[in-house]
Amino acid sequence: MTRPPTAAAAASLRRAFLVAGLLALGGCSFFSHATTWTKNGTTEEQAHSDLAACKEQADVQTNRDRDIDRDISTANSGGNAGIDTTPIQNMQSYGDDRRYKSIIRDCMAQLGYRQVE
Prior knowledge:
The chain is mainly α and 117 residues long. The chain has helices at residues 7-30, 44-76, 86-110; strands at residues 36-38, 114-116. It has three helices and two strands. The radius of gyration is 20 Å and the shape is elongated.
């Protein structure tokens, strides 16, 4: 007869699956490559300037979002006493990175650039 797992064993198993999932997501980004942008009639200097402006816009927006998330987390931290929130922070960081790249993609597309892979 098999005994049901204890609460500690179940928590350890959940953490192991979460870590495995995070490693799998991290592995995907390991193989990602830099994006090159192109636009007919644009000089390299102008393209670099436009990309820098889009990165600045992405920095402002993601920093604002991160500050809001931190404020919410601080307000809710009383219920998390003794809980390891590292996996949640790792997922938030992954989401922040995806949002940052999405903002840059949208900004460059609005300026008439297209991605070259």
